[in-house]
Amino acid sequence: MPDQDKDKVYAEVVDKMARGDVAHIREIIAVNDRRYEQRFTSQESAISTALTAQKEAVIAAFAAAKEAVIKSEVSAEQRFTTLTSQMTALQQQLATMLGKDTGASGAWGYVIGASGLILSAVSIYFLAHH
Q1: What is the mean pLDDT of the chain?
Q2: Is residue 25 within 8 Å of residue 13, measured between CB atoms?
Q3: Cβ neighbours around 24 below 10 Å, total
Q4: What DSSP line would sit under 53-119, residue for residue?
Q5: What is the pTM of this model?
Q6: Rounded distance, CA 36 to CA 9, Å?
Q7: Which residues, in sequence order, are CB contacts of 16 under 8 Å at separation 6+?
Q8: How far apart are CA 37 and CA 11, in angstroms?
Q9: Helix (H) and strand (E) counts in the chain
């Protein structure tokens, strides 16, 4: 509202007050009260809408985080399963290789033991006959 219009309104109010006409002042107060109530209602509605939107955003963020954690757990479980099977395969290969080495080592032990027995028998034979 331009300043000239405000001045006219104030002048009218002062004039009416001077004449004792309080009804106009009450009307102005009632109009202002309605305007303030409308502003308050609008602000309250805007805040409520913003809070609802924020609540929905938080719920969506928590749901996304929960889904990410579940996917991560599934992925980790798959990796552990794969590693466990690989370790089992390596253990079996190692046991097979050690078994072959043990068998070969055992055979060499028998060969050396038998040759030592033969050498002892030959030595006793030569000692007894010479």
Answers
A1: 83
A2: yes
A3: 14
A4: HHHHHHHHHHHHHHHHHHHHHHHHHHHHHHHHHHHHHHHHHHHHHHHHHHHHHHHHHHHHHHHHHHH
A5: 0.45
A6: 19
A7: 22, 24, 25
A8: 26
A9: 2, 0
Cα(41)–Cα(33) distance, rounded to whole angstroms? 12
- For 21, the 3-state DSSP assignment is coil
Q: What local confidence, expressed as pLDDT, does residue 125 receive?
A: 80
Q: Where are the domains of the chain?
A: 3-129
In contact, 17 and 9? CB cutoff 8 Å: no
Q: What is the dihedral of CA 89, 91, 95, 98, to 10 degrees?
A: 120
Residue 13 CA, chain-centre distance (Å), reads 66
Quote the CA–CA distance of 14 and 40 in Å, as a whole number.
29
Q: Which two tokens stand for residue 37?
A: 């109530």
Q: The tokens of 54 are what?
A: 């924020």
pLDDT of residue 130: 65
Measured between alpha carbons, how far is 35 from 32 in angstroms, rounded to an integer? 5
Stronger pLDDT, 65 or 25, i.e. the higher one: 65
